[in-house]
Protein: Stage II sporulation protein M
Organism: Sphingobacterium puteale
Amino acid sequence: MREASFVERNKEKWTLIENNLSINIQVDPDELASNYIELTNDLAYAQTFYPNSKVRNYLNELAVTAHQKIYKDRKASNSRFKSFINEEIPQAIWSIRRQLFYSLLIFVLASAIGFLSAMYDIDFIRLILGDFYVDSTIESIKAGDPAAVYGKGSSFGSAIWITINNVRVAFMAFAFGLFLSIGTGYILFSNGIMLGAFHQMFFQYGVMGKAMSAIWIHGTIEISVIVVAGGCGLAIGNSILFPKSYTRMASFVQTAKTSMKVLVSTIPFFIVAGTLEGFVTRYYNVSVWFSIFIILLSLLAILFFYVINPYRLAKRYQWK
C-alpha cells in the first residue's frame, strides 16, 4: 500500500484518537486502551513500510502520548482508592465518633437489660429467642457441645447466608436512621436484648465460658460492625433533628455521604465474620487458646480501624 493511501484510509481514526488524548475530560479507559492498540498496530506497519516518513514519527508520538495517559489514569485511580481507604474513611469515622459511642452505649445497655431480665424471668429467654431455639440449645448443652448450632450445615453455605444476613441487619440499622434515630435505636436495642438473653441462657447452665469461646470467634467482628452501622444510622437521624447552621436537607445530604463511607468499610469485616462463623467457629473445641487468639486478633483489628487509626490521623491533621 502506498503511504498516501495508508494515510487517507486511517487519518479520520487518528484524528479522533488525537482528540481523545488532547481533551482534559475523563475518557473511558476501555476506549483509551483500544486507541492505544490501534496506534501500535499502525505504528508497526508504518515502521515496516515507511521507516523514514513523517507519518511514522506522528504515530510514534501519538502512541507515546496514549501510553502516558493510560499509565497516568491508572496511577490516579490507584491513588484515589488508597486515599479513600487511608484518609477519607478514617476522617468519616472521626466525624461521627460521638454517634458511634452512643451506639455502643445503647447496645451495651440493652445487652445488660437482656441478661438481667433473663436472670429474673425464666420465660424471658423463650420470649426473645423462641421455644425451638432454646430447646435445641439446651439439648446441645446437655450433650456437652453448647455451640453445636454453629456446626450444622455446610461451611460455605453457612458463611454466605450469615454474611448476607449480617449485612442486612447493618443496612437496616443505617437506613432506619431516617426515622429520626428511633428506628436505629430499636435495631440496636432489640439485638442487644437478644445477645444478653442468649448469654444468660449459657450462664444458667454453667457453660458460659465455653460458649463464649465459640460465639465470640465471629461475634467480636459481627457485633462490633453492627454497632458501627448503628452509629451511622444515629448520625443520619441526628443530622435531621439537629442540622445546626445548615438546612435540614443540606445537613442530611452531607452526613449521609460521610456515614455511607463508614458503612461501606464494614462490608469486608462482615465477610470475615461470616467466614469465621461458617468455617472456623465449629472447631472451637479444638483449643481454647485457638479461640482466644482469634477473638483478640479480631478485637485488635476493630479497635485499630475504628478507634486507634482515626484518632492518630485526627491528631496529625487536626481534624475537628
In short: Residues 82-317 form one domain. The chain has two domains: 3-71, 82-317. The mean pLDDT is 84. The two ends are 68 Å apart (CA to CA).
